[in-house]
């Protein structure tokens, strides 16, 4: 599954980049119950209680920053599993500065297997869109509050 989108925020490109690559900052933007452990500057892991439609449960996950070009772009790979399912995410974000704001263009290749993969595409897409929109809304709120 391929996902993509953009969002704009009234903050400098450097501030947005720093925020998006800081696991503690990102953690504050996730609505689902979760934990996060920082292993080093490029690796972190945790747990997440989430789901799609009626299928909800606990997942463990690990993430690695695969590419980092300060102020411009980053690529993060995530692997998770739980409830007889697994997921892999390969996400890239590119930042573009405009007068007084930054636009972030993101895309993610998501691979699901197991129980989650057996759910209907429409139910899955609706839930993913809702969670993604909430996450980026929280990112914007956090960045513009500072």
Taken in chain order, the helices and strands follow as EHHEEEEEEH
- Label the structural class: alpha+beta
What is the CA-based Rg, rounded? 15 Å
Number of strands: 7
Q: What characteristics describe this protein?
A:
146 residues, alpha+beta, 3 helices, 26% helix
Concise account of the structure shown:
Helices cover 26% and strands 53% of the residues. It has three helices and seven strands, in the order E-H-H-E-E-E-E-E-E-H.
Commentary on this structure:
With 146 residues, the chain is of the alpha+beta class. Helices cover 26% and strands 53% of the residues. It has helices at 13-20, 23-27, 121-145; strands at 2-9, 34-40, 43-52, 55-69, 73-82, 85-98, 101-114. It has a 7-stranded antiparallel sheet with strand order 1-7-6-5-4-3-2. Strand 3 and strand 4 form a beta hairpin. It starts with a strand and ends with a helix. The model has no long low-confidence stretch (mean pLDDT 90).
């Amino acid at each position: 599954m391929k996902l993509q989108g953009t969002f704009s925020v009234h903050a400098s490109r450097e501030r947005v980049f720093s925020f998006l690559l800081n696991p503690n900052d990102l953690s504050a933007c996730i609505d689902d119950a979760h934990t996060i452990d920082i292993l080093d500057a490029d690796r972190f892991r945790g747990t997440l209680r989430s789901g799609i439609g009626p299928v909800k449960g606990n997942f463990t996950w690990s993430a690695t920053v695969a590419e980092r070009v300060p102020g411009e772009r980053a690529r993060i790979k995530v692997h998770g599993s739980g409830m007889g399912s697994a997921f892999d995410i390969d996400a890239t974000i590119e930042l573009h500065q405009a007068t007084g704001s930054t636009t972030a263009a993101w895309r993610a290749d998501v691979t699901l297997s197991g129980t989650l993969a057996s759910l209907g595409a429409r139910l899955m897409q609706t839930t993913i869109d809702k969670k993604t929109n909430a996450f980026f809304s929280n990112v914007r709120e956090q960045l513009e509050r500072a």
